[in-house]
Amino acid sequence: MSAGRLTPGSAREAAPALPVGEERSLRAFPPKPFTVERAENATLWTTDGRTLLDLGGASQGVAVVGHNHPAVVAAVRAQAQRLLHVAQTVPTPTRGAFLAQLHDLLPAPMARTFLANSGTEANECALKLAAAATGRGRFVAAVGSFHGRTTASLAATHRPAFRAPFAAILPQTDFTPLDDIGALQTAVTRDTAAVILEPVQGEGGIRPASPGFLRAAREVCDDTGARLVFDEVQSGMGRTGTFLASAPSGVVPDAVTLGKGLAGGLPVGACAVTDDLAAALPPGGHGSTYGGSPLVCAAGEAALSVLVGEGLMPRAERLGERLRGALSSLGHPLVRGVRGAGLMVGLDLRVRPAPVLATLAGQGFLALTAGTTEVRFLPPLTIEAADLDATVAAVGEALGAAHG
Ligand code: PLP
Q1: Does domain 22-65+311-403 have CATH number 3.10.20.70?
Q2: Predicted confidence band of residue 5 (pLDDT cuts 50, 70, 90)
């Protein structure tokens, strides 16, 4: 249990000055009103001695095995003394061990993995391979999707405000409503290179795709020759209770992408593909100087060992049920619904979520928004149940304040 949270309202009233040099950071979002110097599990320590609870608002969902898990830190230390970097062209036992462990957790048809440095890069890899395999250049994605901010991944990201300034350099994507099988079947044609879907949408609002919709996506891809990509950057790594959120549907895509917490807090992306897509990669057709760095692979191997060894996937399922149940039991008139799977949870409000998030942050609880009306929780799977209970109590108070 973490101690000494912010007193209500203090984060907004007394925002400390930015650390020297931070004013040089080019950001698309304003900086948070606190400065963090240390973290452990779900707790962050600010430079002025306060503690905050990371419910995803600080790490953006990366701290799946908690911040600074001792096993990850030890693996990084040991690897740093041996070998920091060689490129993916140079085999190393560390990368081999990470890939072997990753493939133990992936569906058997996933034959090869390209390691990158971020989720958006993993998606670029999947979409490039689909284009190479099909010779086609159009994508189909879901309304509400978020796949990243580079080129193909941004093209497949639904929110027009994210895409509009960069439209001139983006390939064509058709957006189809989630769970509307008829619309999906119309959108996917013999010009479609790939259908890319989040099995549980994150940024656009926490929305699990129905198993029937995922099955229909598989079928329409098989019928048209399009490739199916599951973006599990946010929903994967055990967050929803299984290693992949798509696992319970039984649907196996042609490519699955991962990122966020896969390397315990180091920058990572992974694009796992079937033999068919692997064969589409021409010699020299894709690469990354840092992708698959031994340091990141050592952290990744440790993080996967923690995930499995500490039983964090069933824990995510248990704690997620408890969190969703407790949020629903608040029975607050401002709450339209509670959605999610495992510890990927959205609280859908009848009002804009920003004031509720600000009140929560003032009390030391750092959550995220999703879509236009949701408060989103992506806590470490290692979070204490008592911290989730305290979160729910704080949400109750914040909703009370918003209700006026
Ligand atoms: N895909 C999904 C589903 C995401 O949630 C994100 C980031 O939030 C990305 C891709 C992009 O990942 P990154 O920010 O590591 O590039």
Answers
A1: no
A2: low
